[in-house]
Design a protein that fits this description.
- The complex is a heterodimer.
- Chain A is an all-alpha fold.
- Chain A is about 75% helix and about 0% strand.
- In chain A, helix 5 crosses helix 12.
- By secondary structure, chain B is α+β, with helices and mostly antiparallel strands.
- Helix content of chain B is about 25%, strand content about 20%.
- Chain B contains 16 helices and 24 strands.
- In chain B, the strands form 6 sheets. Chain B has a 7-stranded mixed β-sheet. In chain B, strands 14-21-13-20-18-19 form a 6-stranded mixed β-sheet. Chain B has a 4-stranded antiparallel β-sheet with strand order 4-5-7-6.
- In chain B, a hairpin with a 5-residue loop joins strand 4 and strand 5.
- In chain B, helix 9 runs antiparallel to helix 11.
- Chain B starts with a helix and ends with a strand.
- Chains A and B meet through helix 2, helix 3, helix 5, helix 8 and helix 12 of A and helix 1, strand 10, helix 6 and helix 13 of B.
Chain lengths: ~325, ~550
């Protein structure tokens, strides 16, 4: 296990390095630059050139990458081009909001697992059909759009949900926060319900047909034990693979949902940074997301060993 | 994906490509008509909170660092602005602001401003000319990188002979002398001089100002969520009637509109598509005005292209555009046609210019005169070359620009001109328009006019190619007229120059001038004291109250 971990950590370092080179290169190759400056006619060309010089935008690509890398390795991701504040501070300030939404969505999303098991156990029933229709329709509709529609409908009829935001200014209570969290978390969790329930249903059906399940039943084990100890555990393996990407997917999803729900997290910041060509912020967020992907996959690999006793780490 | 707030801010900037020349750093919360001490007390009781929804959060409160629209809005709430202001009812006139009076020397080079005696920072310390001078000196230092440092170029000296007097000496006597002299909104020297001008980590006043001069003080700022402001008891126009003013950041304009409908917020700007519905709301009123600093749309030609250098081709295309269609279908009636470089809200407006009203037949004739004949597929051909134009617009999330481009494409097709449209992401668009190889033929863009017509010279002068003058239009007579206009000193003397400029530009047609937009905003009926002027509604924010 220790050797496995060490090997994976070394690999991860190289992956992060690769990601950083790719994102840095792609970012600089994209047309456009200091938008806030270019867009404003009152700012003279000389001012822009001086700023570009100061921000190191005129350095050749490899040199500016090397500069970025050496300071990033020391934990310094630079300052935002837009407001000159340290990038790390800006992310730290918005991260709690994203974590709150993502964690809530992640936990809610896990409901998809029992949903899938239930559908498989009652294959062909009206409940199974209902779940299947829900997952197909749910997959076909963009979730941020659905969220927006619910907001608009709710605003026009019964005010079930607030129109976005994390809490009501001046009434920042736990209940108020949960009320604001409910809709965004549910909409974000939909991806989990749909994905997990569909995988779970087909896996459970698959496992139910296996010889060892017949053997377990033949031994006279109760249906409950068969289901929990044999079926469920075996069916979980693909879910674990899915879960590996979930950390990154939640941050990725926040780019869409945070805008719809006026949620002050890092997703909104990422969109702004991309449009403004705020390279330091973009690089830091890219690296953060890459780190989450790697971490998620590593955790998934470790979890395999737990759900599937045949997996051993050398 | 829905339009993210950033790009919308950017749209404003260059729908805007704002040219506010040299106006003082006082954005929305501008001027008042009369000396506030003489003003009637107005209606409404003090107290209450007003909440406004907006899609873009500010970046910083530093007026000499950050100049985006949202930040300007926040800065205007906490800092009072400059020495003089434009009269909201008569925007070409100046009224006293932080200066109660001023005088101009006979040679028009020296401007002497006398500050109001009752000016106080929010901590009770008097606002004096030393604050102005100190702020000017900091902003002037090259290492402090004030983006608008070029505003200081006309200034020879900026002095504070006594605490109540600011004396600005200019290098040249110009009609826009007052604009040129009034370049500073002061920062509190007694607080800032011990702090770092540039680094927010060493100067908390940059992100959270505590000593201010404006109608409100900042209480709390939760980024991308909300900012709460509370009344400044020492504001020179009197304490605002509102106890607090909350800016709430929302994801999209449609959410802002829904919040206005449900009463969650008291003010929202919304999409023209929601205008009709907004006017029927029971709980809110849509306030509308034709702004003195009007925003107008145009189709700009790239005059580097030989095909477009023929004025007959440009005029033919202008005849092909149905402005009324754009106004009715794209701008939901919230616009007027324009025919040259100044909107009808300018004192210099010249209605007597060629109009090129929709007349495709005339357009086809002109193209035939220019030697273009229909080819086999109906597209015009000359010397074996098809008349095919590349039209770009940005940002690609702008519905209005996308629709204008599409309408133009369809209408030009009727003339036998093929148009390829490409929408570009904002940063990429700016680069394509302003930098070589200039491989576009037409672009959909807009300007926000300045209050003084002079500053628009930047758009039409050779020295501003390729930045402001992206299409590379050169006409020395126009530059000469602008020079003439700024060296005369009464509107009557200046007017002929700007009138001739409009005539020439309508003849030369470097742009197809399209429409000017109406301004509007939705405000809850629980808020009173709103007064609509050609400068908008922000000028008397201290008079707003909760009914």
């Amino acid at each position: 296990m220790a050797r496995f971990l060490v090997r994976r950590l070394i690999q991860s370092a190289f992956i992060l390095l690769g990601v950083s080179i790719l994102s840095f290169g792609l970012m600089r190759l994209a047309p456009g630059g200091l938008v806030a400056m270019y867009a404003n006619p009152r700012i003279s060309q000389a001012t822009i050139e001086r700023l570009e010089e100061q921000l190191g935008l005129n350095d050749p690509l490899p040199i500016s990458y090397a500069k970025w890398l050496t300071s990033a390795l020391r934990g310094n991701f630079g300052v935002s081009f837009i407001d000159q504040r340290p990038v790390v501070d800006k992310i730290a300030e918005r991260l709690p909001a994203t974590i709150e939404l993502s964690l809530a969505a992640l936990l809610l999303g896990l409901l998809g697992i029992p949903l899938g098991v239930f559908a498989a156990m009652h294959r062909g029933s009206w409940a199974d059909n209902l779940i299947r229709v829900f997952t197909v329709v749910g997959n076909a509709v963009p979730h941020w759009w659905l969220g927006l529609m619910i907001l608009v409908i709710s605003a026009n009829t019964v005010r079930i949900f607030p129109l976005g935001g994390m809490y009501t200014q001046g009434h920042d209570t736990l209940v108020d926060r949960l009320w604001h969290l409910a809709l965004p978390a549910t909409i974000t969790a939909m991806g989990g319900w749909i994905g997990y329930s569909r995988y779970m249903r087909s896996e459970v059906l698959d496992v139910l047909g296996q010889d060892f399940v017949r053997t377990a039943r033949a031994k006279g084990l109760s249906e409950r034990v068969v289901l929990v100890r044999h079926v469920f555990r075996n069916a979980l393996i693909p879910i674990v693979t899915l879960m590996g990407g979930v950390l990154a997917a939640l941050v990725g999803g926040s780019v869409l949902f945070e805008n719809t729900f006026s949620w002050p997290g890092i997703g909104r910041m990422a969109v702004q940074a991309a449009f403004q060509r705020d390279y330091p912020v973009l690089m830091a967020l890219n690296m953060f997301t890459a780190f989450l992907v790697i971490l998620g996959n590593l955790l998934a690999d470790i979890a395999y060993g737990w759900v599937d006793p045949r997996v051993r780490y050398e | 994906m829905h339009l993210p707030s950033v790009s919308r801010a950017a749209v404003c900037l260059v729908v805007a490509l704002l040219l506010a020349g040299c106006s003082p750093p006082s954005p929305d919360a501008g001027p008042s008509r009369v000396d506030p001490r003489d003003a009637p007390a107005g209606e409404g009781q003090p107290g209450g909170t007003m909440t406004v929804a907006t899609t873009g959060d500010a970046v910083s409160f530093h007026p000499y660092k950050v100049t985006d629209t949202a930040s300007r809005g926040y800065q205007g709430l906490v800092y009072a602005g400059g020495l003089v202001a434009h009269d909201p009812h008569n925007p070409e006139q100046f009224i006293p602001w932080l200066a109660e009076s001023w005088s101009v020397s006979d040679d028009r080079l020296t401007y002497t401003f006398h500050l109001r005696p009752d000016l106080r920072w929010s901590d009770g310390v008097p606002i004096t000319s030393a604050d102005f001078k100190w702020t000017f000196e900091q902003a002037l230092k090259p290492e402090n990188q004030y983006p608008y440092a070029s505003n200081f170029a006309p200034i020879a000296a900026y002095e504070a002979p006594d605490p109540g007097t600011v004396v600005v000496t200019l290098k040249e006597p110009l009609a826009v002398g007052l604009d040129n002299a009034d370049v500073i909104g002061p920062l509190p020297k007694h607080v800032w001089e011990n702090l770092d001008w540039n680094d927010a980590a060493k100067n908390p006043e940059i992100m959270a100002p505590t000593v201010v001069s404006g109608p409100f003080k900042l209480k709390e700022w939760q980024r991308d969520s909300h900012a709460t402001f509370v009344a400044n008891d020492l504001y020179f126009k009197g304490r605002p009637k509102l106890d607090s003013y909350v800016v709430q950041i929302v994801g999209t304009q449609s959410i802002a509109f829904q919040k206005l409908r449900t009463g969650e917020v008291d003010r929202a700007d919304f999409d023209p598509a929601d205008y009709e519905q907004a006017t029927r709301l029971d709980n809110a009123t849509v306030y509308e005005w034709w702004p003195a600093a009007a925003t107008w749309n145009y189709l700009g030609f790239n005059l580097r292209k030989p095909v477009l250098q023929d004025v007959r081709v440009r005029r033919a295309l202008a005849y092909g555009i149905d402005r009324q269609l754009i106004i009715d279908k794209i701008q939901y009636g919230l616009a007027r046609p324009i025919y040259s470089a100044y909107p009808s809200s300018c004192w210099c407006y010249n209605p007597d210019v060629p109009h090129y009203d929709y007349d495709p037949e005339r357009g086809r004739q002109l193209l035939a005169e220019a030697g273009w004949a229909p080819g086999p597929d109906g597209i015009l051909v000359k010397d074996g070359e098809r008349l095919r134009l590349r039209m770009i617009y940005g940002p690609n999330t702008s519905k209005v620009r996308e629709r204008i481009a599409t309408v133009a494409q369809e209408e030009f097709r009727q003339l036998g001109v093929e148009v390829d449209i490409q929408g570009l992401e904002w940063a990429a668009f700016l680069q394509a328009v302003h930098m070589p190889p200039f491989d576009w033929d037409m672009t959909v863009l807009g300007w926000t006019s300045t209050l003084d017509p002079h500053w628009m010279y930047q758009v039409w002068s050779e020295e501003n190619i390729p930045k402001l003058n992206a299409g590379a239009y050169v006409n020395k007579r126009v530059e000469q007229l602008f020079d003439q206009g700024v060296h005369a000193f009464t509107p009557e003397e200046r007017k002929p120059a700007y009138q001739e400029i409009q005539k020439i530009l309508a003849d030369d047609l470097p742009y197809i001038f399209l429409t000017m937009s109406k301004s509007y905003t939705g405000i809850s009926n629980r808020i009173g004291g709103i007064e609509v002027t050609p400068l908008g509604i922000g000028h008397n924010i201290e008079q707003w109250y909760v009914k």
